[in-house]
From TrEMBL:
It is a multi-pass membrane protein. Belongs to the MAPEG family. One of its GO terms (cellular component) is nuclear envelope lumen. It comes from the Eukaryota. Pathway: Lipid metabolism; prostaglandin biosynthesis. Keywords: Cytoplasm, Fatty acid biosynthesis, Fatty acid metabolism, Isomerase, Lipid biosynthesis, Lipid metabolism, Membrane, Oxidoreductase, Prostaglandin biosynthesis, Prostaglandin metabolism, Transferase, Transmembrane, Transmembrane helix. It comes from Terrapene triunguis (Three-toed box turtle). This is Prostaglandin E synthase.
Amino acid sequence: MMENEVFASFTFYSTILIIKMYVLAIITGQVRLRKKAFANPEDALRNGGLQYCREDPDVERCRRAHRNDMENIFPFLFLGAIYSLLDPNPTVARIHFLIFCVGRIVHTVAYLLQLKAPTRSVAYSVAQLPCFSMALQILFAVITHW
């Protein structure tokens, strides 16, 4: 099915990251239920009353982690897909994808568990390195073939 080894690797790590985002959405919902902090009046009414239509710091932490994922994983999906078309070395490409994936997982765990600084910042920064590398390689490929 997937003859392009680089694209297969990209697909694997991208799917792991999308599943991670789904899990984070489920965690956010569970925290909302546990803390009785609902964003919409109809949800609050179904779960005890309008007084539960409110914000909660733990729910907001989950939401920030999820928003941060969207701000970082969506660009990775674009960059990784285009990078896969450049016929990079499969081992180098896999390392790029692995570093980003592990960095994002560590970032989420650090966010949710409120791990000591600079754990989250380091995870974020490490995950940005392969994205920056892929972006530069894409730009170089486009410029040299334009």
